[in-house]
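quick one before i forget lol
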Amino acid sequence: MNTNRLFVLTLALLMSVVSFAQKGSVTKADSYLAKSEFANAKAEIDVAITIEKNALKSKTWFVRGKIYQAIATSTDEAVSSLDAEALNKSVEAYNKVLEMDKENSPNYLIANTNLDAIWGNFINAGGTVYGEENFEGALANFAKRRAISVLPT
């Protein structure tokens, strides 16, 4: 009888450990971002967004926006090359937060502010390189800025 109880207890413990070790944790992705482990953060959030219960939460989209914003705006070539569509994915994620959350929620306010910051960063960078007569660089920055305003809000 004790053997059966021990077996059931061990099985329950093992199942709980396995459930905590699953990929696709939004909290893990946010933690990787805080440690500047962008590749791990991206991999974790990409899995998390495919899990239905996560996709229904605005926090998932908010963390996704933060991760892809960090990738899109990074000056480190190794980071910015992780995803060529990082800017669009970031803007899409923040727009999803704006759809899902109430206007006075912290994630809504921060997502809106981050969209404005992304927009402003590209305008400023474009103006700076335009002043240096780097017209191709200016055009690239202005095109990124335009991509933000063209996406649905």
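fyi The radius of gyration is 20 Å.
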